[in-house]
Amino acid sequence: MTTRTVRRSRGPLFLLAMPLAWSLAVFDLFVVGWMALSSLKTTREVVHDPWGLPAQLQWGNYAEAWTSAAFGEGVLNSLLLVTGSGLGTILLAAPAAYVLSRFRWRLSGPVTVLFAMGLGIPGPAIMIPIYLGLDRMGLIDSLTGLLIVYIATNLPFSVFFLTAFFASLPRELEEAAALDGSGPYHTYWRVMLPLTRSGLIALFILQAIGDWGETFFALSFLREQKTISLTLLNFVQTMQYTGARWSVLFAGICIVVIPLLLLYLWMSSRLIEGIAAGYGK
Amino acid sequence: MAVRLLERTPARPAVRREGVGPFEAARRRMIGPFLLPALVCYTLVMIVPSVFTVWISFNDWAGAGPMEWAGLGNYTEMVADPVFGRSFANTMKILFGVGAAVFVIAFVLTMLLQDMAGRKFVRAVVFFPSLVPGLVIAILWGFLLDPDGLATSVLKSLGVPDPPLWLAPENMFTTVMAGMTWLAAGTYTVIFMAAADRIPRTFYEAAELDGASAARRFWHITVPLTWDVIGVCAVLWAIGALKTFEFVLVFAGAAGSLPPTDLWTFSVYAYAGAFPSDGVPRYGIASAAAVLTMVLTVVLTLLVRRVMGRRERTDY
Fold first, then answer.
1. What is the secondary structure of B93-108 as a DSSP string?
2. Contact state of A103 with B31 under an 8 Å Cβ cutoff
3. What's the complex ipTM?
4. Do B47 and A124 touch (CB under 8 A)?
5. Which of these, B315, B310, B301, B307, lies nearest to B7 by C-alpha position?
6. Which A residues, 126 through 145, put their C-beta within 8 Å of a C-beta on chain B?
7. pLDDT tens for residues B69-107?
Protein backbone atom coordinates (compact mmCIF):
# COMPACT_ATOMS: atom_id res chain seq x y z
CA MET A 1 0.00 0.00 0.00
CA THR A 2 2.87 2.37 -0.52
CA THR A 3 3.28 3.37 -4.13
CA ARG A 4 -0.26 2.37 -4.94
CA THR A 5 -1.85 4.71 -2.41
CA VAL A 6 -0.17 7.72 -3.88
CA ARG A 7 -1.95 7.28 -7.15
CA ARG A 8 -5.27 6.58 -5.55
CA SER A 9 -8.09 8.89 -6.59
CA ARG A 10 -9.22 11.09 -3.77
CA GLY A 11 -12.61 12.71 -3.81
CA PRO A 12 -13.38 16.08 -2.23
CA LEU A 13 -15.04 14.30 0.70
CA PHE A 14 -11.80 12.56 1.40
CA LEU A 15 -9.79 15.77 1.47
CA LEU A 16 -12.44 17.40 3.61
CA ALA A 17 -12.51 14.67 6.22
CA MET A 18 -8.80 14.02 6.29
CA PRO A 19 -7.99 16.77 8.80
CA LEU A 20 -10.64 15.26 11.08
CA ALA A 21 -8.66 12.07 11.49
CA TRP A 22 -5.46 13.90 12.18
CA SER A 23 -6.95 16.50 14.48
CA LEU A 24 -8.54 13.76 16.56
CA ALA A 25 -5.19 12.01 16.89
CA VAL A 26 -3.40 15.27 17.64
CA PHE A 27 -6.02 16.19 20.21
CA ASP A 28 -5.62 12.84 21.98
CA LEU A 29 -1.85 13.16 22.04
CA PHE A 30 -2.15 16.72 23.26
CA VAL A 31 -4.38 15.69 26.16
CA VAL A 32 -1.95 12.99 27.24
CA GLY A 33 1.03 15.30 27.00
CA TRP A 34 -0.70 18.13 28.77
CA MET A 35 -1.79 15.79 31.54
CA ALA A 36 1.72 14.52 32.08
CA LEU A 37 3.15 18.03 32.04
CA SER A 38 0.56 19.35 34.45
CA SER A 39 1.46 16.66 36.93
CA LEU A 40 4.93 18.15 37.14
CA LYS A 41 3.86 21.72 37.84
CA THR A 42 2.85 23.54 40.95
CA THR A 43 -0.85 24.10 41.49
CA ARG A 44 -0.33 27.80 40.82
CA GLU A 45 1.22 27.04 37.46
CA VAL A 46 -1.53 24.58 36.55
CA VAL A 47 -4.20 27.20 37.13
CA HIS A 48 -2.55 30.41 35.98
CA ASP A 49 -0.29 29.19 33.24
CA PRO A 50 -1.96 26.03 31.92
CA TRP A 51 -0.03 26.10 28.66
CA GLY A 52 3.40 26.94 29.95
CA LEU A 53 6.22 24.64 30.85
CA PRO A 54 6.91 24.17 34.54
CA ALA A 55 9.64 26.41 35.91
CA GLN A 56 10.95 23.43 37.79
CA LEU A 57 9.85 19.83 37.52
CA GLN A 58 7.85 19.03 40.62
CA TRP A 59 8.52 15.34 41.12
CA GLY A 60 7.37 15.86 44.67
CA ASN A 61 3.78 15.85 43.39
CA TYR A 62 4.09 12.14 42.84
CA ALA A 63 5.52 11.50 46.26
CA GLU A 64 2.72 13.50 47.78
CA ALA A 65 0.06 11.69 45.78
CA TRP A 66 1.57 8.31 46.55
CA THR A 67 1.74 8.79 50.31
CA SER A 68 -0.41 11.59 51.67
CA ALA A 69 -3.21 11.16 49.14
CA ALA A 70 -2.88 7.37 49.57
CA PHE A 71 -2.62 6.56 45.88
CA GLY A 72 0.01 3.98 46.77
CA GLU A 73 -2.46 1.82 48.64
CA GLY A 74 -5.00 2.19 45.84
CA VAL A 75 -2.49 1.16 43.20
CA LEU A 76 -1.49 -1.97 45.10
CA ASN A 77 -5.10 -2.99 45.66
CA SER A 78 -6.03 -2.36 42.05
CA LEU A 79 -3.00 -4.29 40.83
CA LEU A 80 -4.08 -7.25 42.91
CA LEU A 81 -7.62 -6.99 41.59
CA VAL A 82 -6.62 -6.61 37.94
CA THR A 83 -4.18 -9.51 38.01
CA GLY A 84 -6.48 -11.73 40.02
CA SER A 85 -9.57 -11.06 37.96
CA GLY A 86 -7.69 -11.34 34.65
CA LEU A 87 -6.20 -14.72 35.51
CA GLY A 88 -9.29 -15.96 37.30
CA THR A 89 -11.60 -15.07 34.43
CA ILE A 90 -9.39 -16.77 31.85
CA LEU A 91 -9.05 -19.83 34.07
CA LEU A 92 -12.83 -20.17 34.18
CA ALA A 93 -13.82 -18.81 30.76
CA ALA A 94 -11.34 -20.58 28.48
CA PRO A 95 -12.39 -24.16 29.31
CA ALA A 96 -16.05 -23.17 29.19
CA ALA A 97 -15.66 -21.46 25.80
CA TYR A 98 -13.77 -24.51 24.57
CA VAL A 99 -16.50 -27.03 25.36
CA LEU A 100 -19.22 -24.64 24.22
CA SER A 101 -17.69 -24.00 20.81
CA ARG A 102 -16.04 -27.32 19.96
CA PHE A 103 -18.46 -29.89 21.35
CA ARG A 104 -21.85 -30.54 19.93
CA TRP A 105 -24.20 -31.62 22.64
CA ARG A 106 -27.79 -30.94 23.58
CA LEU A 107 -27.31 -27.96 25.84
CA SER A 108 -24.39 -26.15 24.21
CA GLY A 109 -26.71 -23.72 22.39
CA PRO A 110 -28.85 -22.78 25.40
CA VAL A 111 -25.84 -22.47 27.72
CA THR A 112 -24.08 -20.17 25.24
CA VAL A 113 -27.19 -18.01 25.14
CA LEU A 114 -27.34 -18.02 28.93
CA PHE A 115 -23.81 -16.63 29.06
CA ALA A 116 -24.55 -14.07 26.35
CA MET A 117 -27.53 -12.83 28.34
CA GLY A 118 -25.09 -11.70 30.99
CA LEU A 119 -23.81 -9.04 28.59
CA GLY A 120 -27.13 -7.29 28.97
CA ILE A 121 -27.28 -7.32 32.76
CA PRO A 122 -26.29 -3.89 34.03
CA GLY A 123 -24.37 -3.46 37.27
CA PRO A 124 -27.17 -1.71 39.15
CA ALA A 125 -29.51 -4.61 38.33
CA ILE A 126 -27.52 -7.08 40.39
CA MET A 127 -25.84 -4.76 42.85
CA ILE A 128 -28.38 -4.97 45.68
CA PRO A 129 -28.63 -8.78 45.88
CA ILE A 130 -24.85 -9.11 45.56
CA TYR A 131 -24.45 -6.60 48.33
CA LEU A 132 -26.75 -8.61 50.57
CA GLY A 133 -24.96 -11.84 49.68
CA LEU A 134 -21.48 -10.43 50.30
CA ASP A 135 -22.70 -8.86 53.52
CA ARG A 136 -23.92 -12.23 54.76
CA MET A 137 -20.55 -13.80 53.96
CA GLY A 138 -18.67 -10.94 55.60
CA LEU A 139 -17.15 -9.89 52.28
CA ILE A 140 -18.22 -6.28 52.23
CA ASP A 141 -15.20 -3.99 52.24
CA SER A 142 -13.08 -6.95 51.19
CA LEU A 143 -10.95 -7.24 48.08
CA THR A 144 -11.83 -10.93 47.85
CA GLY A 145 -15.49 -10.08 47.56
CA LEU A 146 -14.85 -7.51 44.87
CA LEU A 147 -12.56 -9.94 43.05
CA ILE A 148 -15.33 -12.55 42.90
CA VAL A 149 -17.71 -9.95 41.50
CA TYR A 150 -15.18 -8.84 38.86
CA ILE A 151 -14.47 -12.39 37.73
CA ALA A 152 -18.13 -13.29 37.47
CA THR A 153 -19.15 -10.12 35.65
CA ASN A 154 -16.25 -10.54 33.20
CA LEU A 155 -17.37 -14.04 32.30
CA PRO A 156 -20.11 -13.27 29.74
CA PHE A 157 -17.87 -11.16 27.55
CA SER A 158 -14.90 -13.49 27.97
CA VAL A 159 -16.85 -16.59 27.03
CA PHE A 160 -18.35 -14.71 24.08
CA PHE A 161 -14.95 -13.48 22.97
CA LEU A 162 -13.08 -16.78 23.34
CA THR A 163 -15.80 -18.86 21.71
CA ALA A 164 -14.89 -17.15 18.43
CA PHE A 165 -11.26 -18.17 18.79
CA PHE A 166 -11.90 -21.80 19.51
CA ALA A 167 -14.52 -22.03 16.78
CA SER A 168 -12.01 -20.79 14.20
CA LEU A 169 -9.50 -23.60 14.84
CA PRO A 170 -9.63 -26.50 12.38
CA ARG A 171 -11.18 -29.71 13.55
CA GLU A 172 -8.28 -31.69 12.07
CA LEU A 173 -6.00 -30.48 14.85
CA GLU A 174 -7.96 -32.31 17.50
CA GLU A 175 -8.22 -35.41 15.37
CA ALA A 176 -4.53 -35.44 14.62
CA ALA A 177 -3.73 -35.00 18.30
CA ALA A 178 -6.07 -37.86 19.18
CA LEU A 179 -4.44 -40.11 16.59
CA ASP A 180 -1.09 -39.34 18.13
CA GLY A 181 -2.46 -40.67 21.39
CA SER A 182 -3.18 -37.39 23.13
CA GLY A 183 -6.09 -37.51 25.59
CA PRO A 184 -8.74 -34.78 25.45
CA TYR A 185 -7.33 -32.86 28.42
CA HIS A 186 -3.85 -33.02 26.99
CA THR A 187 -5.16 -31.87 23.61
CA TYR A 188 -6.86 -28.90 25.18
CA TRP A 189 -3.90 -27.91 27.27
CA ARG A 190 -1.06 -28.51 24.84
CA VAL A 191 -2.67 -27.99 21.43
CA MET A 192 -5.82 -25.89 21.54
CA LEU A 193 -5.11 -23.43 24.34
CA PRO A 194 -1.69 -22.33 23.02
CA LEU A 195 -3.29 -21.61 19.65
CA THR A 196 -5.63 -19.07 21.23
CA ARG A 197 -2.79 -17.22 22.88
CA SER A 198 -3.37 -13.95 21.05
CA GLY A 199 -7.00 -14.08 22.15
CA LEU A 200 -6.08 -14.74 25.76
CA ILE A 201 -3.66 -11.83 25.75
CA ALA A 202 -6.16 -9.47 24.14
CA LEU A 203 -8.77 -10.56 26.65
CA PHE A 204 -6.44 -10.04 29.58
CA ILE A 205 -5.61 -6.52 28.40
CA LEU A 206 -9.24 -5.62 27.74
CA GLN A 207 -10.13 -6.79 31.23
CA ALA A 208 -7.22 -4.98 32.79
CA ILE A 209 -8.39 -1.78 31.09
CA GLY A 210 -11.92 -2.31 32.35
CA ASP A 211 -11.14 -3.37 35.91
CA TRP A 212 -8.29 -1.00 36.65
CA GLY A 213 -10.52 2.06 36.86
CA GLU A 214 -13.79 0.28 37.64
CA THR A 215 -15.91 2.52 39.81
CA PHE A 216 -19.43 1.24 40.24
CA PHE A 217 -18.90 -2.06 42.06
CA ALA A 218 -15.91 -0.73 43.94
CA LEU A 219 -17.98 2.19 45.17
CA SER A 220 -20.82 -0.10 46.17
CA PHE A 221 -18.93 -2.90 47.93
CA LEU A 222 -15.91 -1.25 49.54
CA ARG A 223 -15.86 1.04 52.55
CA GLU A 224 -12.39 1.59 54.01
CA GLN A 225 -10.48 -0.35 51.37
CA LYS A 226 -9.65 1.74 48.35
CA THR A 227 -9.03 0.89 44.75
CA ILE A 228 -7.30 3.37 42.50
CA SER A 229 -10.59 4.82 41.25
CA LEU A 230 -11.92 5.28 44.77
CA THR A 231 -8.70 6.99 45.84
CA LEU A 232 -9.06 9.39 42.96
CA LEU A 233 -12.73 10.01 43.64
CA ASN A 234 -12.02 10.51 47.30
CA PHE A 235 -9.26 12.98 46.53
CA VAL A 236 -11.47 15.02 44.20
CA GLN A 237 -14.13 15.17 46.84
CA THR A 238 -11.80 16.26 49.62
CA MET A 239 -10.47 19.05 47.42
CA GLN A 240 -13.61 20.94 48.26
CA TYR A 241 -12.46 21.22 51.84
CA THR A 242 -8.71 21.27 51.52
CA GLY A 243 -8.62 23.64 48.56
CA ALA A 244 -7.67 22.79 45.03
CA ARG A 245 -4.48 20.76 44.85
CA TRP A 246 -4.44 20.36 41.10
CA SER A 247 -0.79 19.42 40.98
CA VAL A 248 -1.34 16.41 43.21
CA LEU A 249 -4.55 15.52 41.42
CA PHE A 250 -2.77 15.45 38.07
CA ALA A 251 -0.01 13.33 39.55
CA GLY A 252 -2.72 10.97 40.77
CA ILE A 253 -4.37 10.91 37.36
CA CYS A 254 -1.04 10.05 35.78
CA ILE A 255 -0.55 7.26 38.29
CA VAL A 256 -3.87 5.86 37.08
CA VAL A 257 -3.38 6.40 33.36
CA ILE A 258 0.31 5.81 32.67
CA PRO A 259 0.34 2.08 33.54
CA LEU A 260 -2.54 1.57 31.12
CA LEU A 261 -0.80 3.52 28.39
CA LEU A 262 2.41 1.54 28.86
CA LEU A 263 0.53 -1.75 28.83
CA TYR A 264 -1.21 -0.65 25.66
CA LEU A 265 1.92 0.58 23.89
CA TRP A 266 3.69 -2.62 24.79
CA MET A 267 0.87 -4.86 23.68
CA SER A 268 -1.06 -2.84 21.10
CA SER A 269 -0.34 -5.00 18.06
CA ARG A 270 -1.31 -8.11 20.02
CA LEU A 271 -4.43 -6.40 21.27
CA ILE A 272 -5.55 -5.29 17.83
CA GLU A 273 -4.82 -8.70 16.36
CA GLY A 274 -6.88 -10.26 19.12
CA ILE A 275 -9.76 -7.82 18.69
CA ALA A 276 -9.82 -8.56 14.97
CA ALA A 277 -10.23 -12.25 15.58
CA GLY A 278 -12.56 -11.91 18.56
CA TYR A 279 -15.16 -9.65 17.01
CA GLY A 280 -15.05 -11.09 13.54
CA LYS A 281 -16.66 -14.28 12.39
CA MET B 1 -33.74 -16.00 22.72
CA ALA B 2 -32.90 -12.39 23.11
CA VAL B 3 -29.20 -12.39 22.74
CA ARG B 4 -29.14 -14.67 19.76
CA LEU B 5 -27.25 -12.17 17.69
CA LEU B 6 -24.32 -12.63 19.95
CA GLU B 7 -24.33 -16.33 19.46
CA ARG B 8 -22.12 -17.27 16.60
CA THR B 9 -23.54 -19.76 14.19
CA PRO B 10 -20.69 -20.97 12.05
CA ALA B 11 -21.40 -21.19 8.36
CA ARG B 12 -20.37 -24.81 8.44
CA PRO B 13 -20.76 -26.60 11.75
CA ALA B 14 -17.33 -26.90 13.27
CA VAL B 15 -18.11 -30.30 14.68
CA ARG B 16 -19.68 -33.07 12.69
CA ARG B 17 -22.19 -35.34 14.25
CA GLU B 18 -20.76 -38.75 14.72
CA GLY B 19 -21.49 -41.96 16.48
CA VAL B 20 -20.27 -41.87 20.05
CA GLY B 21 -16.96 -43.66 19.80
CA PRO B 22 -14.42 -43.86 22.63
CA PHE B 23 -12.92 -40.59 21.41
CA GLU B 24 -16.23 -38.74 21.63
CA ALA B 25 -17.08 -40.45 24.92
CA ALA B 26 -13.84 -39.28 26.49
CA ARG B 27 -14.49 -35.79 25.18
CA ARG B 28 -17.99 -35.74 26.58
CA ARG B 29 -16.73 -36.54 30.05
CA MET B 30 -14.79 -33.31 30.11
CA ILE B 31 -17.81 -31.10 29.52
CA GLY B 32 -18.73 -31.11 33.21
CA PRO B 33 -15.38 -30.17 34.74
CA PHE B 34 -14.71 -27.62 32.00
CA LEU B 35 -18.04 -25.88 32.03
CA LEU B 36 -19.30 -26.07 35.59
CA PRO B 37 -16.87 -23.74 37.40
CA ALA B 38 -17.67 -20.87 35.04
CA LEU B 39 -21.35 -21.68 34.96
CA VAL B 40 -21.70 -21.89 38.74
CA CYS B 41 -19.76 -18.67 39.34
CA TYR B 42 -21.73 -16.82 36.68
CA THR B 43 -25.09 -18.14 37.85
CA LEU B 44 -24.49 -17.31 41.50
CA VAL B 45 -23.22 -13.78 40.91
CA MET B 46 -25.28 -12.69 37.89
CA ILE B 47 -28.33 -14.84 37.20
CA VAL B 48 -29.56 -15.41 40.76
CA PRO B 49 -29.20 -11.73 41.72
CA SER B 50 -31.03 -10.67 38.55
CA VAL B 51 -33.96 -12.89 39.44
CA PHE B 52 -33.87 -11.60 42.99
CA THR B 53 -33.89 -8.02 41.69
CA VAL B 54 -37.03 -8.75 39.72
CA TRP B 55 -38.59 -10.04 42.95
CA ILE B 56 -37.52 -6.97 44.94
CA SER B 57 -38.99 -4.69 42.29
CA PHE B 58 -42.45 -5.92 43.25
CA ASN B 59 -41.90 -5.05 46.88
CA ASP B 60 -41.34 -2.06 49.11
CA TRP B 61 -38.13 -2.61 50.98
CA ALA B 62 -35.63 -0.47 52.80
CA GLY B 63 -32.98 -3.15 53.12
CA ALA B 64 -33.56 -3.81 56.78
CA GLY B 65 -36.86 -5.16 58.06
CA PRO B 66 -39.52 -7.06 56.19
CA MET B 67 -40.43 -6.67 52.56
CA GLU B 68 -43.89 -5.46 51.78
CA TRP B 69 -45.62 -6.68 48.66
CA ALA B 70 -46.33 -3.74 46.37
CA GLY B 71 -47.31 -5.41 43.13
CA LEU B 72 -46.70 -3.01 40.29
CA GLY B 73 -46.67 -0.08 42.71
CA ASN B 74 -42.99 0.68 42.21
CA TYR B 75 -43.38 0.69 38.47
CA THR B 76 -46.39 3.02 38.41
CA GLU B 77 -44.74 5.34 40.90
CA MET B 78 -41.56 5.35 38.86
CA VAL B 79 -43.31 6.14 35.59
CA ALA B 80 -45.16 9.01 37.24
CA ASP B 81 -41.90 10.43 38.61
CA PRO B 82 -40.71 13.38 36.47
CA VAL B 83 -37.11 12.63 37.39
CA PHE B 84 -37.54 9.19 35.91
CA GLY B 85 -38.92 10.75 32.74
CA ARG B 86 -35.79 12.85 32.43
CA SER B 87 -33.56 9.86 33.14
CA PHE B 88 -35.37 7.98 30.42
CA ALA B 89 -35.02 10.83 27.91
CA ASN B 90 -31.32 11.20 28.73
CA THR B 91 -30.64 7.51 28.35
CA MET B 92 -32.35 7.55 24.96
CA LYS B 93 -30.34 10.60 23.89
CA ILE B 94 -27.15 8.75 24.75
CA LEU B 95 -28.32 5.57 23.09
CA PHE B 96 -29.38 7.10 19.77
CA GLY B 97 -27.70 10.52 19.64
CA VAL B 98 -24.28 9.56 20.89
CA GLY B 99 -24.62 6.20 19.19
CA ALA B 100 -25.20 7.78 15.79
CA ALA B 101 -22.29 10.18 16.26
CA VAL B 102 -19.96 7.40 17.38
CA PHE B 103 -20.80 5.13 14.47
CA VAL B 104 -20.56 7.91 11.89
CA ILE B 105 -17.18 9.02 13.21
CA ALA B 106 -15.95 5.45 13.37
CA PHE B 107 -17.09 4.82 9.80
CA VAL B 108 -15.47 7.97 8.48
CA LEU B 109 -12.23 7.23 10.29
CA THR B 110 -12.19 3.64 9.08
CA MET B 111 -12.72 4.85 5.53
CA LEU B 112 -10.05 7.52 5.77
CA LEU B 113 -7.50 5.41 7.52
CA GLN B 114 -7.81 2.58 5.09
CA ASP B 115 -5.30 4.10 2.74
CA MET B 116 -3.65 6.88 4.60
CA ALA B 117 -0.02 7.29 5.47
CA GLY B 118 0.53 6.77 9.17
CA ARG B 119 -2.59 4.71 9.70
CA LYS B 120 -1.07 2.51 12.38
CA PHE B 121 0.00 5.53 14.33
CA VAL B 122 -3.38 7.23 14.12
CA ARG B 123 -5.15 4.02 14.97
CA ALA B 124 -3.00 3.52 18.03
CA VAL B 125 -3.64 7.08 19.18
CA VAL B 126 -7.40 7.21 18.66
CA PHE B 127 -7.68 4.20 20.95
CA PHE B 128 -6.18 6.18 23.85
CA PRO B 129 -9.44 7.54 25.26
CA SER B 130 -10.81 4.02 25.53
CA LEU B 131 -7.94 3.15 27.82
CA VAL B 132 -8.59 5.91 30.25
CA PRO B 133 -11.14 5.16 32.96
CA GLY B 134 -14.34 7.19 32.57
CA LEU B 135 -13.63 8.66 35.96
CA VAL B 136 -10.39 10.27 34.79
CA ILE B 137 -11.94 11.58 31.59
CA ALA B 138 -14.71 13.13 33.61
CA ILE B 139 -12.25 14.90 35.92
CA LEU B 140 -10.19 16.16 32.98
CA TRP B 141 -13.21 17.49 31.18
CA GLY B 142 -14.44 19.18 34.29
CA PHE B 143 -11.11 20.97 34.55
CA LEU B 144 -10.82 21.85 30.87
CA LEU B 145 -14.34 23.15 30.57
CA ASP B 146 -14.57 25.04 33.80
CA PRO B 147 -15.71 28.65 33.19
CA ASP B 148 -12.20 29.75 34.16
CA GLY B 149 -10.67 26.74 32.53
CA LEU B 150 -8.59 26.06 29.49
CA ALA B 151 -11.23 25.79 26.81
CA THR B 152 -12.69 29.16 27.66
CA SER B 153 -9.32 30.86 27.74
CA VAL B 154 -8.41 29.39 24.36
CA LEU B 155 -11.62 30.60 22.79
CA LYS B 156 -11.20 34.04 24.33
CA SER B 157 -7.68 34.31 23.00
CA LEU B 158 -9.04 33.36 19.58
CA GLY B 159 -11.38 36.31 19.81
CA VAL B 160 -14.64 34.62 20.75
CA PRO B 161 -16.30 37.17 23.01
CA ASP B 162 -18.69 34.90 24.89
CA PRO B 163 -17.44 31.33 24.99
CA PRO B 164 -20.22 28.90 25.78
CA LEU B 165 -20.69 27.94 29.39
CA TRP B 166 -20.15 24.25 28.95
CA LEU B 167 -20.83 23.41 32.53
CA ALA B 168 -23.89 25.60 32.92
CA PRO B 169 -26.86 23.42 33.86
CA GLU B 170 -28.57 23.87 30.51
CA ASN B 171 -25.48 22.84 28.53
CA MET B 172 -24.11 20.19 30.79
CA PHE B 173 -25.80 17.20 29.27
CA THR B 174 -24.62 18.15 25.80
CA THR B 175 -21.11 18.34 27.18
CA VAL B 176 -21.53 14.92 28.75
CA MET B 177 -22.66 13.52 25.41
CA ALA B 178 -19.71 15.06 23.58
CA GLY B 179 -17.38 13.51 26.11
CA MET B 180 -18.96 10.11 25.67
CA THR B 181 -18.67 10.38 21.89
CA TRP B 182 -14.99 11.14 22.13
CA LEU B 183 -14.54 8.24 24.54
CA ALA B 184 -16.30 5.63 22.41
CA ALA B 185 -15.44 6.67 18.85
CA GLY B 186 -11.86 5.40 19.08
CA THR B 187 -12.87 1.99 20.39
CA TYR B 188 -15.26 1.31 17.55
CA THR B 189 -12.85 2.68 14.97
CA VAL B 190 -10.27 0.13 16.07
CA ILE B 191 -12.80 -2.70 15.90
CA PHE B 192 -14.10 -1.67 12.46
CA MET B 193 -10.59 -1.25 11.12
CA ALA B 194 -9.62 -4.66 12.40
CA ALA B 195 -12.62 -6.12 10.60
CA ALA B 196 -11.94 -4.16 7.39
CA ASP B 197 -8.35 -5.37 7.36
CA ARG B 198 -9.56 -8.91 6.83
CA ILE B 199 -11.09 -8.01 3.48
CA PRO B 200 -8.80 -9.03 0.61
CA ARG B 201 -7.09 -6.03 -0.96
CA THR B 202 -7.88 -7.33 -4.44
CA PHE B 203 -11.52 -6.27 -4.01
CA TYR B 204 -10.47 -2.67 -3.53
CA GLU B 205 -8.03 -2.78 -6.38
CA ALA B 206 -10.67 -4.13 -8.72
CA ALA B 207 -13.15 -1.47 -7.66
CA GLU B 208 -10.55 1.20 -8.08
CA LEU B 209 -9.79 0.06 -11.60
CA ASP B 210 -13.49 0.40 -12.27
CA GLY B 211 -13.26 3.98 -11.09
CA ALA B 212 -15.01 3.72 -7.72
CA SER B 213 -14.25 6.58 -5.33
CA ALA B 214 -13.07 5.99 -1.76
CA ALA B 215 -16.57 6.60 -0.44
CA ARG B 216 -18.11 4.16 -2.90
CA ARG B 217 -15.48 1.55 -2.21
CA PHE B 218 -16.24 1.92 1.48
CA TRP B 219 -19.99 1.73 1.00
CA HIS B 220 -20.04 -1.15 -1.45
CA ILE B 221 -17.17 -3.28 -0.17
CA THR B 222 -16.28 -2.49 3.42
CA VAL B 223 -19.75 -2.08 4.88
CA PRO B 224 -21.33 -5.24 3.43
CA LEU B 225 -18.31 -7.37 4.24
CA THR B 226 -18.06 -6.18 7.82
CA TRP B 227 -21.80 -6.24 8.40
CA ASP B 228 -21.71 -8.93 11.08
CA VAL B 229 -19.09 -7.04 13.08
CA ILE B 230 -21.14 -3.86 12.77
CA GLY B 231 -24.12 -5.81 14.09
CA VAL B 232 -22.22 -7.09 17.11
CA CYS B 233 -20.96 -3.56 17.77
CA ALA B 234 -24.46 -2.11 17.53
CA VAL B 235 -25.66 -4.56 20.17
CA LEU B 236 -22.68 -3.92 22.41
CA TRP B 237 -23.20 -0.18 22.07
CA ALA B 238 -26.88 -0.46 22.95
CA ILE B 239 -26.05 -2.53 26.02
CA GLY B 240 -23.29 -0.17 27.06
CA ALA B 241 -25.39 2.94 26.50
CA LEU B 242 -28.22 1.66 28.66
CA LYS B 243 -25.71 1.00 31.42
CA THR B 244 -24.15 4.50 31.29
CA PHE B 245 -23.28 5.33 34.83
CA GLU B 246 -19.91 6.42 36.07
CA PHE B 247 -19.26 8.98 33.39
CA VAL B 248 -22.36 10.92 34.40
CA LEU B 249 -21.85 10.31 38.10
CA VAL B 250 -18.37 11.73 38.21
CA PHE B 251 -18.62 14.34 35.52
CA ALA B 252 -21.40 16.09 37.28
CA GLY B 253 -21.17 14.74 40.77
CA ALA B 254 -17.58 15.60 41.56
CA ALA B 255 -19.11 17.96 44.07
CA GLY B 256 -19.50 15.02 46.39
CA SER B 257 -22.85 13.41 45.94
CA LEU B 258 -25.22 12.65 43.13
CA PRO B 259 -25.30 14.75 39.98
CA PRO B 260 -28.24 17.09 39.38
CA THR B 261 -31.30 15.14 38.30
CA ASP B 262 -31.21 16.78 34.86
CA LEU B 263 -28.29 14.55 34.05
CA TRP B 264 -29.52 11.27 35.41
CA THR B 265 -29.62 8.09 33.39
CA PHE B 266 -31.36 4.83 34.25
CA SER B 267 -28.36 3.54 36.10
CA VAL B 268 -27.94 6.69 38.12
CA TYR B 269 -31.65 6.55 38.94
CA ALA B 270 -31.29 2.99 40.18
CA TYR B 271 -28.15 3.83 42.12
CA ALA B 272 -29.80 6.85 43.72
CA GLY B 273 -32.68 4.68 44.89
CA ALA B 274 -30.30 2.26 46.57
CA PHE B 275 -27.85 4.82 47.95
CA PRO B 276 -29.85 8.02 48.39
CA SER B 277 -27.96 11.08 49.53
CA ASP B 278 -30.71 11.60 52.10
CA GLY B 279 -32.86 9.20 54.03
CA VAL B 280 -33.86 5.61 53.57
CA PRO B 281 -32.84 3.41 50.66
CA ARG B 282 -35.71 2.38 48.44
CA TYR B 283 -34.61 -0.90 46.99
CA GLY B 284 -37.99 -1.52 45.37
CA ILE B 285 -37.80 1.54 43.13
CA ALA B 286 -34.11 1.01 42.42
CA SER B 287 -34.82 -2.57 41.37
CA ALA B 288 -37.74 -1.53 39.19
CA ALA B 289 -35.45 0.85 37.29
CA ALA B 290 -32.87 -1.91 36.92
CA VAL B 291 -35.46 -4.37 35.67
CA LEU B 292 -36.61 -1.85 33.11
CA THR B 293 -33.03 -1.50 31.90
CA MET B 294 -32.79 -5.25 31.44
CA VAL B 295 -36.10 -5.37 29.55
CA LEU B 296 -34.99 -2.55 27.27
CA THR B 297 -31.71 -4.34 26.62
CA VAL B 298 -33.57 -7.44 25.52
CA VAL B 299 -35.93 -5.44 23.30
CA LEU B 300 -33.08 -3.51 21.70
CA THR B 301 -31.03 -6.61 21.09
CA LEU B 302 -33.99 -8.20 19.33
CA LEU B 303 -34.56 -5.05 17.34
CA VAL B 304 -30.96 -4.74 16.21
CA ARG B 305 -31.00 -8.38 15.25
CA ARG B 306 -34.15 -7.86 13.23
CA VAL B 307 -32.73 -4.84 11.43
CA MET B 308 -29.21 -6.13 10.90
CA GLY B 309 -29.67 -9.84 10.67
CA ARG B 310 -31.62 -10.10 7.45
CA ARG B 311 -28.67 -9.80 5.18
CA GLU B 312 -27.04 -12.80 3.67
CA ARG B 313 -23.70 -13.67 5.14
CA THR B 314 -20.99 -13.25 2.58
CA ASP B 315 -18.12 -15.66 2.49
CA TYR B 316 -15.00 -14.83 0.63
1. IIIIIIHHHHHHHHHH
2. yes
3. 0.86
4. no
5. B301
6. 126-130, 133
7. 888 889 999 999 999 999 999 999 999 999 999 999 998
